[in-house]
Amino acid sequence: MSNREWKAVIRRERLAARDAIPVDLRTEYSLAMAEYGGDRLAFVPGTIISGFFPIRSEADIRPLMSHLRTRGARLCLPIIQDRETILFRELVAGAELVDTGFGTRGPGPEAAVLDPEIMLVPLSAFDARGHRIGYGAGHYDRAISRLREKGHDPRLIGIAFDCQEVAEVPFEPHDVQLEAVLTESGYRQF
Asked: What is the pTM of this model?
């Protein structure tokens, strides 16, 4: 089996496990993530942090993002500009949200485009070495690559539920490694 095929199998299995978490339990887990990650994530006020609004059965990190804002973070959300490109637009309190692709909402075109210094990254699966499997489209891998080409080196924090951990993720040269992962049971650095 090729790495690509292996990743597809792992992705299907871990997303099915995530989908099986009851909605009320996902809410409880998401609130636990805000509690664990809200104060553990080290940054100085003014740091640009990208988050995301949940789609499907993802963790809802809006409470976490709200807490990070109270600590002085500048928040931004991913916007799918075209089928290949993610931009990060600033999320300011009270701003109108619009459809931004991939089934989510975010700031409109009038919002400033920012380069995140810390990225809260959704994923399908992760392992204990910080390797991750995304959703298969490569949006985050390309976005991280573009940031690095611009001279930035964002800290990458995976957001997942414990059931998304696997023994081993097939790692390829183009894959990016996480610095840490935040789940309902805590914040773990690699």
From this structure: 0.94
